[in-house]
Amino acid sequence: MAAVFSNVSSLSLPSQLGNSRRFFFKSCARPRLFDKRIFAVKVRASSTAFVEAKPATEPIVVENEVSSSKSILACPICYESLTLIGNRVLSVDSAAGSTLQCNTCKKSFYGNQTHYDMTVSSGAKDYGAPMPPSTEIFRFPLISFLYERGWRQSFSIWGGFPGPEKEFELMRDFLKPALDGNIVDASCGSGLFSRLFAQSGLFSLVIALDYSENMLQQCYEFIKQEETFPKENLTLVRADISRLPFVSSSVDAVHAGAALHCWPSPSTAVAEISRVLRPGGVFVATTYILDGPFAFVPFLRRQRQNIAAISGSHIFLSERELQDLCTACGLVGFTSIRNGPFVMISASKPN
Ligand SMILES: C[S@@+](CC[C@H](N)C(=O)[O-])C[C@H]1O[C@@H](n2cnc3c(N)ncnc32)[C@H](O)[C@@H]1O
Q1: What is the pLDDT of residue 8?
Q2: What is the pLDDT of residues 134-165, one digit of tens each?
Q3: For position 3, what pLDDT does the model report?
Q4: In a mutational test of the pocket of ligand 1, which residue from 154, 155, 167, 187 has the highest number of ligand atoms less than 8 Å from its CB?
Q5: Residue 15 Cα to ligand 1 middle (Å)
Q6: CA 251/CA 281 separation, integer angstroms
Q7: What share of the chain is helix, strand, coil (3-state, %, to 5)?
Q8: Ligand 1 atom at minimal distance to the Cα of residue 286
Q9: Using DSSP, how many helices (H) and how many strands (E) does the chain show?
């Protein structure tokens, strides 16, 4: 199931969506302007249909103050940068047969057919890192297979998620300071946004990162299905959000779609994101908030602790909580967009 959305600028969205869907703009970060470009994106979002984000009516403004280096990958143990052995460039096609070596820890991180394994425990023979169900569930091959074949689309029905291409349009403004730079699609799942980012041509490097090897496998399969996919700017990486394999202050933007509530510790994860973002770098994320009518559910605050203890999934009860989380992790300029339970947030690393 996939829908074709017409291009709508963020500010005209409320009328386009009708009265049942309300979008609120809490504040609007005004980026500095340098040069301009227009983009058109087409991405395969499910096995059966294409979705399209049409050229923007408003030109996208590019700020050139971005990191151009491709050497942002770091050892997840010591955070020192890595030496790439084998292929000379990072890309979807070059992972197989390549090795990333840490000269400090003397540890190697190997690429396979689909991705680089950059988890701390990569290469361990007997130890398996225990993760909560909200992380483990996405490692099942069936869940990964179903993710873009109905699972993700269901977020629009119960959660007010506008859908990948509309979400991409909504985040364009937030991402302006990172255009032409690198972007990490954190907890990318099967890569629906990573593919959009790569195909947009707006970024010099896209890292699709997830803990689930099967989600990354699916991402790889979707890419393989498209003959003209620009593979040279995309790299697939397996990593834990709480231990990001990037050099500190090296990343221009981190996007995390529908993932904050799945992370074992949102605060550790956002702190890691804050560490890797360069000054002025942007964090954009979507999740859902149970407020409005849900605020009347008795003992919801206490129940969510039990839910978190059992499932590992964190339920957010207000935007203030998300703002607090970002502020506590050293991010500033919090902005949010709402549509029912759906929320898109953005915050930046101070300059
Ligand atoms: C609901 S999916 C979101 C996928 C995609 N970003 C989207 O917008 O649809 C949540 C993703 O978070 C990933 N995830 C869960 N725990 C993680 C962790 N500890 N580190 C990295 N990724 C994690 C899962 O593997 C899953 O792919």
Answers
A1: 30
A2: 999 999 999 999 999 999 999 999 999 999 99
A3: 34
A4: 187
A5: 31
A6: 7
A7: 35, 25, 45
A8: 8
A9: 10, 16
Rounded distance, CA 171 to CA 334, Å? Answer: 13
pLDDT tens digit sequence for 194-249: 999 999 999 999 999 999 999 999 999 999 999 999 999 999 999 999 999 999 99
Residue 190 Cβ inside 6 Å of ligand 1? The answer reads no
| Residue nearest (by alpha carbon) to ligand 1 atom 27 | 189
Give dist(CA 189, CA 256) in Å, integer.
10
In this structure, is residue 113 part of a structural domain? Answer: no
Q: Which atom belonging to ligand 1 lies closest to the Cα atom of 263?
A: 16
Cβ–ligand 1 distance for 241 under 6 Å, the answer yes
Domain that holds residue 191: 26-67+127-348
Q: Does the C-beta of 342 come closer than 6 Å to ligand 1?
A: no
Q: Is 234 inside a domain boundary?
A: yes
Among all chains, which residue has been given the structure tokens 């992380």? 135
Domain total for the chain?
1
pLDDT under 50: residue ranges of the chain: 1-69
Please tell me the distance between residue 157's alpha carbon and the centre of ligand 1 in angstroms: 19
